[in-house]
Write a structure and sequence with these properties.
Layout (H helix, E strand, L loop, with lengths): L3 H8 L3 H9 L6 H14 L5 H8 L4 E6 L5 H16 L3 E6 L4 H13 L4 E4 L6 H5 L5 E4 L9 E4 L1 H14 L4 E6 L9 H13 L3 E6 L8 H13 L5 E4 L2 H13 L9 E6 L12 E4 L2 H16 L7 E4 L2 E3 L5
Helix pairs in contact: 1-2, 1-3, 5-12, 8-9, 10-11
Keywords: DNA-binding, Repressor, Transcription, Transcription regulation
Organism: Paenibacillus mucilaginosus 3016
GO molecular function: DNA-binding transcription factor activity; transcription cis-regulatory region binding
Length: 325
């Protein structure tokens, strides 16, 4: 089995130079880099990842905890996190919490054992003190955990305002707002705050329907939507706080014989890829999912390098008008 010394000898460089190439440290000319990688390929040399991890005191692993990766928003977020982590030489440990504190704690312990270099939290059910004691770089997505932990969020208030104003501008006079459970105290609740302030300012009738505590249980969406549309047959607008819920709204309207957008106009949230595939294509509020993933990785790396970082990162949203309005 080839060693680093064999690679150095074949490439005509020192062992230190080979090590610097492998760890991307210091200036290395492109010619030297090609020689080293050429020698590695010829000798079938595989770096000892465990030894490199111990030497650098880092694992090149980033943990990502999400509520449910099957949800399109979190699936796309995970894809972007992995892409940007890989570009920086890191791999991602992906964990589904399913909003279960026991699972979340188990995943946190697993990450400790695997010596992850940082954790991106897209889900949290544990007490804040457990995160303070981790002593790992942490970034949260759409969750405000603690004054000391940086977080990334799209501008939820502006998103709710844009959605409500668009439905009002399109002539809606009674709007149903379908949102997650507001007791969860998530930053996404600001979408509802903005919606309520906007419709009240315009004197528009409205109905608010919350999901159960398990906001990602899709089985409840159909039942709740059908109930509110049957109870309030004069509803002519729907603002759903996810594209998935909005897609169910389209389905239920069709079942009840309501034409979209003639009878009911619908606005979703997130602008996941599927929003443009639906028929009719979904009007929605676009979150910059790719930028959220990129920034999450960047903030982990900056903390690893002990750089000063800003705690709050609020990203812009925009209305994407399609066929449902």
């Amino acid at each position: 089995m080839a060693t680093i010394n064999d690679v150095a000898a074949m490439a005509g460089v020192s062992v230190t130079t080979v090590s610097r190439v492998l760890n991307n440290r210091g200036y290395i000319s492109e010619a030297t880099r090609r020689k080293v990688y050429g020698a590695m390929e010829t000798l079938h040399y595989q770096p000892n990842e465990i030894a490199r991890s111990l030497l650098k005191k880092q694992s090149n692993l980033i943990g990502l905890i999400v509520p449910n990766v099957s949800h399109p928003f979190f699936g796309e977020l995970a894809s972007h996190v992995e892409f940007h982590a890989h570009r920086s030489g890191f791999k991602v440990l992906l964990c589904n919490s399913h909003l279960d504190p026991v699972k979340e704690r188990d995943y946190i312990e697993m990450m400790k054992r695997n010596r992850v270099d940082g954790i991106i939290m897209g889900s949290h059910t544990l007490e804040v003190e457990e995160y303070r004691n981790l002593r790992h770089p942490i970034v949260t997505v759409d969750r405000l955990i603690d004054e000391s932990i940086p977080y990334i969020s799209a501008d939820n208030y502006r998103g709710g305002e844009l959605a409500a104003q668009h439905l009002v501008d399109r002539g809606c006079r009674k709007i149903a707002h379908i949102c997650g459970n507001l007791e969860l105290q998530l930053l996404a609740n600001r979408r509802t705050d903005a919606f309520l302030e906007t419709v009240r300012r315009h004197g528009v009738q409205h109905v608010v329907v919350q999901t159960d505590m398990n906001v990602f249980d899709q089985n409840q969406y159909e039942e709740k939507l059908e109930a509110v549309l049957r109870e309030h047959p004069d509803i002519d607008g729907v603002f759903a706080t996810s594209d998935i819920i909005a897609a169910f709204a389209v389905k239920i309207c069709r079942r009840l014989g309501k034409e979209i957008p003639q009878d009911v106009r619908i606005v979703g949230y997130d602008d996941v890829n599927a929003a443009s595939w639906l028929h009719p294509a979904l009007t929605t509020i676009r979150q910059p999912i790719g930028e959220i993933g990129r920034l999450a990785v960047e903030l982990i790396l900056k903390q690893m390098d002990e750089e000063l970082i800003v705690r709050e990162h609020i990203l812009s949203v925009e209305l994407v008008q399609r066929e449902t309005t």
